[in-house]
Amino acid sequence: MNFTERLHDVQRKNNSLLCIGLDTDSRKLPPSLARYENPVLEFNKRIIEATRDLVCAYKINLAFYEAESDLGIGTLRPTLRLIPRDILSIGDAKRGDIGNSSARYAHEMLEVLNFDSSTVNPYMGTDSVEPFLTWPEKGTFILAVTSNPGAKDFQYLPVKGKPLYEHVVRKVKKWNVRNNCGLVVGATRPKELQRVRSIVPDMPLLIPGVGSQGGDLAATIRYGCNKRGYLAVINASRSVIYASSKEDFAEAARKEALALRDEINRLREKYF
Amino acid sequence: MNFTERLHDVQRKNNSLLCIGLDTDSRKLPPSLARYENPVLEFNKRIIEATRDLVCAYKINLAFYEAESDLGIGTLRPTLRLIPRDILSIGDAKRGDIGNSSARYAHEMLEVLNFDSSTVNPYMGTDSVEPFLTWPEKGTFILAVTSNPGAKDFQYLPVKGKPLYEHVVRKVKKWNVRNNCGLVVGATRPKELQRVRSIVPDMPLLIPGVGSQGGDLAATIRYGCNKRGYLAVINASRSVIYASSKEDFAEAARKEALALRDEINRLREKYF
User: Fold this and answer.
1) pLDDT value at position B74?
2) B169: Cα within 13 Å, side-chain hemisphere
3) DSSP string covering B234-257, please?
4) What is the DSSP letter of B109?
5) Is B219 exposed, middle or buried (0-12, 13-18, 19+ CB in 10 A)?
6) Which of A59, A264, A270, B31 is an S-S bond match for A90, by CB 3.0 to 4.6 Å?
7) pLDDT value at position A212?
8) For B218-245, what is the mean pLDDT?
9) With an 8 Å Cβ cutoff, are A150 and B125 in contact?
10) Do A63 and B95 touch (CB under 8 A)?
């Protein structure tokens, strides 16, 4: 089964497009976790246990783990083991390098750490992305239109009458011979989301920016899904995992995730 | 002292623009190193000892360390400690993410691992790069024109009559308020190097692609240096560290590095 089929399958089975971002920052944990040997791991464990029936995927941003250095990297693997087998993992690392170096990153992300998918930066072109596309069952989400303010600096620059990001999208469409490519499009960019979806009607789209970053959920569902209401992966990180800064953080995360999943499904029923 | 001054200083003191890339691949080590607890670290130690008087910097590509997972990350720090204090370290990680995540990467690279500088991908724009520019004495090399074939996919696309990479260069020029920005321009791109240098006459340029990738050394020196023959960081990785695959690898690396440094200096005398 290729990655696109795998994603469709889990979204259908779990009836959820929701992805929770485990951007766990050791400085933001409830004080009671300090007594655990690895507070970040304990936090992740409780978040996953409280939300695993509500999601299609968990996204792990490596920035938050590498910043903890040895301990952080040591937290990655056990966190990955806590994710149920039928839920997809996304290693959000935004890597990309010349071919022989990218091959090492791809090996790390998709073989050593064994993520189901990872994010990649397109700036260095074909040979920087190709090593990630080796395995049909493993996905690669390439940055197209990101959710942050800086997206406007380069991604929107006009190239032959079209914004740069559209050239990225069209290139990724060519790369997608194994049906394992996806794109990252921010929820803060509804018009661009609509445009991207029109170019790649059945490609997985990873859509961050709902929640803390203020993306428009209705537009995200309407324009981000394929024609049958699937293949948009709606990511929320901080708004879910830090829904409460107190002892009830896991329950609060569940409540927030449940509300978000249900609102997504309500919108799917409305539009599809 | 800001990063640009630091680089100029070490290049003058060591009379060298050469940077050696420690892209150490555990699969390519001489068999005799297998008896060491950490063969990659032993390899790096011998390469550094054999070449430390010939370089201005060592570049460490994190792809090769992360691919070894826990062991690799554990090799990074002791390798960094082996680099003499007066020689600059470049963490070649090509990171970049939304502001709060990039702040974590910057913290990791420039504070936790304590690299003197790192490489960053510009695709996500200002807020993805800014966290790296916090410390005047620490450098950030932003990808402009990379040395790999895929560079042509996006970096050369025409935007308002100029290639995309030129827009990146002009943006970096604006970011450079603390004199700690640099650019990455491949040695395989002499025309573009000349163009970039004309826009940023006194910015550090990290120039990979000499050696295994076949870049033109004479053109690299002529167009890559500032007007006084400094601030180009000429990186060679595989051609130096794998000059011999046998027991004499350190001597062979020294011989190769010495020849390269001397050829660079001969060309500097010719052109400046």
Assistant:
1) 79
2) 26
3) EEE-HHHHTS-SSTTHHHHHHHHH
4) I
5) middle
6) A59
7) 73
8) 97
9) yes
10) yes
Q: Which of B46, B119, B132, B41 is nearest to B80 (CA)?
A: B41
Residue-wise pLDDT tens digits, B60-93: 999 998 877 665 677 999 999 999 999 999 999 9
Burial class (CB in 10 A: 0-12, 13-18, 19+), B244: middle
Q: Are A116 and A143 in contact (CB under 8 A)?
A: no
Chain B contacts of A157, Cβ < 8 Å? 159-160, 164, 167
Mean pLDDT score, B8-16: 98
CB A208 within 8 A of CB A23: no
Q: pLDDT of B160-176, one tens digit each? A: 999 999 999 999 999 99
- Among chain B residues, the shortest Cα distance to A105 is held by B63
Q: Does residue B89 contact residue B56 with C-beta atoms inside 8 Å? A: no
Average pLDDT, chain B: 95
Give CA torsion, residues B113, B110, B64, B239, to 10 deg: -110
- The parts of chain A modelled with pLDDT lower than 70 are 69-72
Rounded CA-CA distance B133/B111 in Å is 12
Please state, in angstroms and rounded to a whole number, the distance separating the CA atoms of residues B121 and B92: 11
Do residue A108 and residue B70 have CB atoms under 8 angstroms apart? no
